[in-house]
Amino acid sequence: MVDRIASWRHAWMGVGVAEPDAALLAALLARYGEAQRFYHTLQHLDECLALFETTSACAERPGEVALALWFHDAIYDVQGRDNEARSAAWAREALLAAGVGGAAVERVVQLIMATRHDVLPLTVDAKLLVDIDLAILGAEASRFAQYEEQIRQEYAWVAPAVFAARRAAVLAGFLARPRIYATDALFKRLELPARANLQAAILQLGA
Hints:
By secondary structure, the protein is mainly α. The protein has 2 domains: 4-133, no CATH class; 140-206. 67% of the residues lie in helices and 0% in strands. It has 10 helices and no strands. The protein has helices at 4-14, 22-32, 42-55, 62-71, 83-98, 102-114, 124-133, 141-154, 160-175, 184-206. The relative contact order is 0.11.
């Protein structure tokens, strides 16, 4: 289990500023605990932070990656199309208020926006962040099945046939990539399990 408090403090140390007032952490944790969330929860945040602890050496600016992970799903409206932008805006406001330099703040913002997964990440830190966010695709089969059910719960308002078609298309998009994971460390560890999970899920959605 990840030590959230230690992770939080270490992230701020990594960008060279004092940890903000405890109210910011409390507000973030409350967001991740909202009732409409089933996957984008504290469980997902903890999994991301735990994986980052073992891969942070791959980052160029680990403090910025850590803060981007903390904020990347801060806003999650299940019917919204601008969750990443709103999460990034909150991060920008919070980091500037804490005294983080403008260039670093904008890099964190761009890292959060990379979790839209609409374009392939280009920078070293974006590749690591996106790989961590997508690590669930390469999870062991039981956790991946739980993840798929959690996503279905978040989209319970979508008709089953529509959900199945759209979800299969999303998963097929990842499967069609030459590489799902851009970093060598996570490619070696997760690429083959992810492809097996995706293929199985697409078959099940089409059944």
